[in-house]
């Protein structure tokens, strides 16, 4: 098995699971080589003990010929619940709406097998579902794509306890244009992108959501906060983005030493996108990151 540094790993939408059982880190993402075109390979995983040297890629998921989707396998996120590992990911096929479904495995490296075809509404164009547990009840936050609704939307849907399906109707949380750091794209600048939600409770109890869009300098990631402390909101956007220089689709994880870390992909242009890891911390009720050894809130 080969060893790689992050700069040698071509992944978008990185997600890192710090697995308590193995005391290893597992890196997943959208495989960069065929993220846009061609038949999807599946999902790979890289494994590390120090976040610097990674072994892989290992095949975490390879679809069977009967699998319903054949392209745009995007943004896998893996969670350990009741000693099983659940992968939330986006899938697409002709004549079917893009959907977030669930795969399952007994090991963080897989092999993952299909569990739920779709947790998102039939015929909607959706992506980037992320799991959040509130009061012991599972929710999924996901994006409804701008390609369908123009002003990209963020939704939450409560799930059944075993994650086998939705337990209610999706709740609209906000639209991309509500953020001051979102820029319109396309003809007439009327399209606004929603990408990559990830929920995190700050030390002061605020429920915050990382999410990404297109800003003045390219791909941009910022924070929204729930005024009620609940996933149903209402959600208020921070005035300034957290990361504004052509990188995003971020998530937070805690190292085995207790350090809070942020991973994103940067830059956003194909085929140069790579996973990047920053040390994160909270200051003045804000999430901040270290850039090149310096404390930064935005960059």
Automatic annotation (TrEMBL):
The keyword Hydrolase applies. Keywords: Glycosidase, Hydrolase. The keyword Hydrolase applies. SUPFAM superfamilies: Arabinanase/levansucrase/invertase (SSF75005). The record marks 128 as: Important for catalytic activity, responsible for pKa modulation of the active site Glu and correct orientation of both the proton donor and substrate. Gene3D superfamilies: Glycosyl hydrolase domain, family 43. One of its GO terms (molecular function) is hydrolase activity, hydrolyzing O-glycosyl compounds. GO terms for biological process: carbohydrate metabolic process. InterPro entries: GH43_arabinanases, Glyco_hydro_43, Glyco_hydro_beta-prop_sf. Pathway: Glycan metabolism; L-arabinan degradation. Signal peptide: none annotated. Belongs to the glycosyl hydrolase 43 family. This is Glycosyl hydrolase family 43. It comes from Mesobacillus foraminis.
